[in-house]
UniProtKB/TrEMBL annotation:
InterPro entries: DNA_recomb/repair_RecA, RecA-like_C, RecA-like_N, RecA_C_sf, RecA_monomer-monomer_interface. The keyword ATP-binding applies. The lineage of its organism: unclassified sequences, metagenomes, ecological metagenomes. One of its GO terms (biological process) is DNA repair. This is RecA family profile 2 domain-containing protein.
Length: 95
């Protein structure tokens, strides 16, 4: 979890959650899974994640690994998330 304390272009004290992997940086695949589940594009049934008829894996780490090995699928999910985000009004909760 990261929290912005001072910001000149936006309201301060906003927070965000993301994975930071040692030697890699911020995990884009993890963010895609989280946002996909939030927007209803990626289905979570128990520990299994799936996108349409494609099973991404059992557990979040396995799904992240599958997306990193299949960048075209990750790009498709990202495009779907961006399309959903631009057509829907997003509200950011105050923390």
């Amino acid at each position: 979890r990261a929290k912005v304390v001072k910001n000149k272009v936006a309201p301060p004290f906003r927070s965000a959650e993301f994975d930071i992997m040692f030697g890699y940086g911020i995990s884009k695949e993890g963010n895609l899974i989280d946002l996909g589940v939030e927007w209803g594009l990626v289905k979570k049934a128990g520990a299994f994640f799936s996108y349409g008829d494609i099973r991404l894996g059992q557990g979040r780490e396995s799904a992240k690994q599958y997306l990193s090995q299949n960048p075209e699928l990750a790009q498709e999910i990202e495009q779907q998330i961006r399309a959903s985000a631009t057509t829907t009004h997003i509200t950011v909760p105050d923390d």
